[in-house]
Automatic annotation (TrEMBL):
It catalyses: 2 6,7-dimethyl-8-(1-D-ribityl)lumazine + H(+) = 5-amino-6-(D-ribitylamino)uracil + riboflavin. This is Riboflavin synthase. GO terms for molecular function: riboflavin synthase activity. Lumazine-binding repeats lie at residues 1-95, 96-192. The keyword Transferase applies. It comes from the Bacteria. Transmembrane segments: none annotated. One of its GO terms (biological process) is riboflavin biosynthetic process. Keywords: Repeat, Riboflavin biosynthesis, Transferase. It comes from Deminuibacter soli.
């Protein structure tokens, strides 16, 4: 379980493929503190630490994860957002994030507002019921508030701290990002379906 408050970023230093799986080596400031079998969010995707070496950690994504996320597009040298799992005796600064990406969204516009940035994203229509004005969303593992919601688009505003301390600064028109919708909204929708 995560909060969507990015702890640090890491650099992809190596990628290997084995069958339908892809393994990634990520070098970061938190890698030396990790333990084997620990869960950590990588651009919003919960992955298990499998190996540690030289201030880096290794994780593997299976075919299901690669199909539903942007991990198949990752390249050596890319920057990814990292967050270790939440500590239950701390503050929940973002919102409840599972690290289970629902789908991807494509950036259709990035606007520099001379002190902040606005990004508009387009997502698959079938998820329209999970996106609400001023609701929470996890975008590449970052907890953000959405606005200007239409059927299949939403906008987020980025403050300077978030822009400079996460990988959002690398997102431009055409970039594909991982999104996880608010878990509470998903449960409410499921309950309504079962009552119908």
């Amino acid at each position: 379980m995560f909060t969507g408050i990015v702890e640090t970023t890491g650099i992809i230093t190596g990628i290997t493929t084995s069958g339908t799986n892809k393994s990634f080596w990520i070098q970061s400031s938190v890698s030396p503190e990790l333990k084997i079998d620990q869960s950590i969010s990588h651009d919003g995707v919960c992955l298990t630490v499998e190996a540690l070496a030289n201030d880096a950690h290794q994780v593997t994504a299976i075919a299901e994860t690669i199909q539903k996320t942007n991990l198949g597009q990752w390249k050596t040298g890319d920057t990814v957002n990292l967050e270790r799992c939440m500590i239950m005796n701390g503050r929940l600064d973002g919102h409840i994030v599972q690290g289970h990406v629902d789908t991807t969204a494509t950036c259709v516009n990035k606007t520099d507002l001379n002190g902040s940035w606005e990004y508009t994203f387009e997502f698959p229509d079938q998820f329209a019921h999970l996106v609400i004005e001023k609701g929470s969303i996890s975008l590449n593992g970052t907890s953000l508030t959405i606005f200007n919601v239409t059927r299949n688009r939403f906008t987020v505003a980025i403050i300077p701290y978030t822009y400079h301390h996460t990988s959002i600064r690398q997102v431009t028109a055409g970039s594909v990002v991982n999104i996880e919708f608010d878990m509470v909204g998903k449960y409410i929708y499921r309950m309504q379906q079962l009552k119908a």
